[in-house]
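Bumping my old thread because nobody answered last time. Still need a sequence for this structure:
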């Protein structure tokens, strides 16, 4: 945090986060939130009052902070006051705002084909193919190891991803062929004595990245370069490939529960939002306006009712007149 007086507090907070096994990214976010609050107060958060909490939330509302960022900040502060400081009264004063529900931005199959075709290297093409063809997140792509590729069962194992969950995704023949091509070209000078099964598929090769996988920032940069070369004008991100993976599967009739398992979603509602952007499915829906223009068809009577009517007509004609 910002002053020497806060240093012990920061240390206690880090210990509390480590005890609860919070991932490194979550810990960095919580620390940034507390540093921002301390900078606003110009003193230690330990001395914060109800009025300070109210003023800080009002300050966030008046600035250009997005709702998502604001909620992340409040999550970090709630951890500080609820867990580390044990100030449940102050933690109760913090609230989250409901974020607007936006539909995912996806690319078309033609745009996906162009994107992979213009990739300037085999490495880029393989990583982008994993994102689009298997629905992997950026962090899941860069952390792949040899042991995660199971060519016998034709699956890729994703270990301890978001939410500390494992899952399997399909390994298509096309994807397997690309991975084998990349393995022949992959630089191996920094592997050392690392067992083959434990080697990164996409190892870093510079400075502090030696012995570690490449960064998600590097992968994002490669994606944006390919998107620009492919002439994709939408303001898409790398995560749009994962959205497109789910949407295109849904348009081709894949069961939504299978898509849920491939994406690793806990709730079916999370997966169901892709129905909102499955333009192929939406375009096939017949509008009620079109039905108005069609001639009305006579409703056919059921066979049993037709037989009864014919029998009654026959009976009435056979009887002599009175």
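Sorry it took so long. Here it is:
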């Amino acid at each position: 945090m910002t002053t020497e007086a806060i240093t012990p507090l920061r240390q206690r907070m880090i210990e509390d986060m480590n005890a609860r096994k919070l991932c490194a990214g979550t810990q960095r976010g919580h620390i940034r939130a507390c540093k921002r609050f301390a900078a606003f107060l110009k003193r230690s958060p330990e001395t914060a009052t109800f009025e300070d909490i109210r003023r800080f939330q009002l300050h966030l509302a008046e600035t250009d902070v997005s709702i998502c960022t604001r909620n992340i900040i409040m999550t970090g502060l709630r951890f500080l006051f609820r867990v580390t400081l044990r100030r449940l009264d102050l933690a109760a004063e913090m609230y989250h705002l409901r974020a607007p529900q936006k539909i995912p931005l996806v690319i078309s199959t033609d745009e996906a084909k162009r994107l992979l075709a213009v990739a300037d290297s085999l490495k880029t093409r393989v990583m982008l193919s994993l994102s689009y063809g298997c629905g992997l997140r950026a962090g899941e792509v860069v952390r792949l190891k040899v042991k995660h590729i199971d060519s016998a069962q034709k699956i890729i194992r994703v270990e301890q991803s978001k939410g500390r969950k494992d899952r399997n995704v399909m390994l298509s023949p096309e994807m397997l062929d690309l991975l084998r091509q990349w393995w022949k070209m992959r630089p191996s000078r920094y592997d050392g004595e690392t067992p083959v099964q434990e080697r990164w598929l996409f190892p870093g090769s510079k400075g502090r990245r030696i012995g570690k996988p490449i960064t998600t920032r590097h992968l994002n940069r490669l994606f944006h370069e390919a998107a620009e070369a492919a002439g994709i004008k939408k303001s898409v991100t790398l995560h749009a490939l994962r959205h497109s993976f789910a949407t295109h599967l849904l348009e081709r009739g894949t069961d939504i529960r299978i898509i849920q398992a491939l994406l690793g979603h806990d709730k079916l509602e999370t997966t169901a939002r892709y129905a909102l952007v499955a333009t192929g499915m939406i375009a096939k829906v017949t509008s009620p306006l079109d039905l108005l223009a069609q001639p009305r068809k006579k409703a056919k009577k059921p066979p049993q009712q037709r037989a009864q009517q014919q029998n009654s007509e026959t009976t009435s004609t056979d009887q002599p007149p009175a």
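The first strand starts at residue 149 and ends at 150. Let me know if any region looks off to you.
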